[in-house]
Amino acid sequence: MHLPHFKPSLGLVALTPLLAGCANGEVSGLGFEEGISSVNDQSLSLWQGAWIAGAVVGVITLILILWPVFFHRKKDENFPKQTQYNIPVEIAYTLIPFLIVAVLFYFTVQRESKIVKISPDSQVSHFIDVVGFQWSWQFKYKDAGDFKSATVTGTPAQPPTLYLPQGQKVRFTLDANDVVHGFWIPAFMIQMQNLPGVTNQLEFTANKLGTYPGRCNILCGRNHAQMLFTVKVVTLAEYQSYIEGLVAEEKAAIA
């Protein structure tokens, strides 16, 4: 076997950045919908590019497996020629996977740095605290005027709903008061851990009206499967009306 046989794989390495960059407009979302959130805008093309690169590598690997099966089958009783080693081939099959992983790693770090970036407060429209506990969620809306915050606390029997204003950047402060939980909105392609004693922050913009499932994706105890919530993306007017309703309920409860 000679090094030229590996030219298709070398071509894959060269094409990987192109595939990752242009995949968004050429293939389906592969399970995710485009334009739902600002996170999707960053991660969807990476997701597609990784699948394309994986598919190309899989096809090349399958060809390399089937080639000797069909073209190097035993033809007679002569003992086959023995080859001790081939330095160019060994360098190639070591270097090519390294380059593929390096390219994917570069694009992953690039997108991740944009997703987890925290903006100045002046560039954020709304602030919500998310507290995970066994076994549900508490959402504290910090833009409730003089009332400081409006709070919604769920239970396993009655999972809470997280309201988000369409097209408005929201910063989430994530905490837990018992064990590790995972704040996960699958459709938004985002998750971050709620850690006891550690505060994490995450911000993004929900762009499409609708209702989306949310859940905990960290095994946190016996009723982990019941740690559900719903994300409802509404217009800004509907969001403000919802917050005003929460404040009115809490004022009535205090009175």
UniProtKB/TrEMBL annotation:
Keyword list, A-Z: Copper, Electron transport, Membrane, Metal-binding, Respiratory chain, Translocase, Transmembrane, Transmembrane helix, Transport
Keyword Cell division: no
One biological process term in Gene Ontology: ATP synthesis coupled electron transport
Annotated membrane topology: Multi-pass membrane protein
InterPro entries xref list: CcO_II, CcO_II-like_C, Copper_CuA, Cupredoxin, Cyt_c_oxidase_su2, Cyt_c_oxidase_su2_TM_sf
Main location: membrane
Any single GO CC term annotated in Swiss-Prot or TrEMBL for this entry: membrane
Enzyme Commission no: 7.1.1.9
Residues annotated as domain Cytochrome oxidase subunit II copper A binding: 123-245
Gene3D superfamilies according to UniProt: 1.10.287.90, Cupredoxins - blue copper proteins (2.60.40.420)
SUPFAM superfamilies, alphabetized: Cupredoxins, Cytochrome c oxidase subunit II-like, transmembrane region
GO function term, MF aspect, one: cytochrome-c oxidase activity
Subcellular localization, as worded in the UniProt entry: Membrane
Transmembrane parts of this sequence: 49-70, 91-109
Assigned protein family: Belongs to the cytochrome c oxidase subunit 2 family.
Protein name per Swiss-Prot or TrEMBL: cytochrome-c oxidase
Organism annotation: freshwater metagenome
Lineage: unclassified sequences, metagenomes, ecological metagenomes
